[in-house]
Amino acid sequence: MVVVAVQRQVSRWSMGWGLGGVRVGNATIAFSCMLGITGISRAQTSRVGAGPPRFVEVPCAPAMWGTNPGVPADAVKCGTVTVPQNRNTPNDPRLVNVILPVVVYAMPGAKGTPLVFLPGGPGESAIDAAQRVLLNTSAGQMLLRERPIVAFDHRGYSPTYGRAVPDLGTITFEPRSKRDLAVAPLRDSLTRLARELRAHGVDPRNFITREAVEDIADVAKALHYDKIILFGASYGSHESLQFMARHRDMAELAILDGIAPPNAPQVLDSTYMARIGRGIVDHIVDECKADAICAAQYSDLPQALATLSAATAVQMRRTAHYPVVGEWRTIEVAGQSVLSVLGVAATSEDVRASIPRIIVEFAAKDTLIDELSPRVLLAAAIDPSLQTTAREVSPIVQYVALCGDRPAGEPKGGNRQLCDALGVPFGGPEAIAPVTSDVPVLLMSSGYDAQTPAELADLAAKTLSHAQRVHFAKAGHVAFARPLVTACSALIIESFIQRPDQAPPTGCIGNVSPAFVPRGDGVPFSKP
Fold this sequence. Notes:
Blueprint: H1 3-6, H2 31-35, E1 55-58, H3 62-65, E2 76-83, E3 98-105, E4 115-118, H4 126-132, H5 138-146, E5 149-152, E6 170-173, H6 179-199, H7 209-222, E7 228-233, H8 235-246, E8 251-257, H9 270-290, H10 292-297, H11 301-310, E9 316-322, E10 327-333, H12 335-345, H13 349-364, H14 373-381, E11 392-395, H15 396-405, H16 417-422, E12 441-448, H17 454-461, E13 467-476, H18 486-498
Parallel strand pairs: 4-5, 4-7, 7-8, 8-12, 12-13
Antiparallel strand pairs: 1-2, 2-3, 3-5, 6-11, 9-10
Helix pairs in contact: 5-18, 7-8, 9-12, 11-12, 11-13, 12-13, 12-14
């Protein structure tokens, strides 16, 4: 996402909420993990039998499984569940099994219905996301006291080498000013990698969302859970909805935050995000005008917004200092592009608070001095379809999942060229069908969210007969993890779990209003 280039804190909220935990590497495939299976899964190296899936417990070595601050060691179980790579041919000798690493948190006395945590990506590590985000939030701590929490890594990838089998690895994307220049080497690398994967018993077609959804069911069965609560964040909401459609009898409740419904294939499209981002900027400007302090300091903000809004046909030339290269650069951008970038990046509280100052600076000055302005300038100049101005290392399963879920293919390619390189077809009408379900579901959306805006939660609710809607107007993507509203979201989640047939209390949502960065506290660079 463009948000990567503008956030002060480089935490990669991939599909909104990645954690920056992707392994660094260039087109890496962990064949040693696929073929020389490590100690965590030696008990499950045989072919999958006809019986139900089994959970095989192993020691929770921190180097392999991470750490769980604040959680007693005896409340954490680690292990693996082996499932077929292709469930239609479960004993195909040409294919290696899928071994899923699983962590179960079960505090003494936590007897509620188990909760399965599904983060974004697609392809994000639920184990890492639980340790680094969920369990550090008010909602996570509340859930931990009440019920077991299950987190397992997505089939085909883990940020820790040797934890998942097979591991399709990662691939590095280098952005360029034009899409064709950036996509061509990516396509060539994916073609080569797919060929190598198949030669080692791994078919990328077996790692689409449909198979990942069946993994949820098999992990629950391996743990002897008849019923589960789904907690899907960002693209995890997509998998949760698919699970509700395919396994109604197992889903007791669902909590979804940052909704990406299957029937919204526009998710991640740059043009869609730009349109939503532009609306977010308008909303933030209105909030500044309604705030007495902000309105007084930025009395020229409405005119500055009008100036950038009109700057479409004629490009603006702006100069900024880039400390990484130690140079000043002059770049041409469209004012509308600047506004869209700001709207997408507003999911970060640091960026949102600085938007009035950045808009005024872009409209009035040729030389930019705000700390964030150089990154905004660069992001606005890059082809928006590339969605990033920075080198991006992503799991190959992310490309695979998007190829299966989207008729138009993975967004960076602009068509299905990257999907054809991987040999992954579109999943067909079922992949984009609205999910109709009577499972009680809490749908949470955020106002500063261009990736999964509120309108997508409203779209999903149309075919969910027992849905409760909650909107955090002044929070970024994935509200429960945002410090300003995390306590309120925990209260709402708890109320929904206890009384899913009643509207949850939402009075706490408006109790906190974020502030804006004062005018003039930026320190200019000394231009030579």
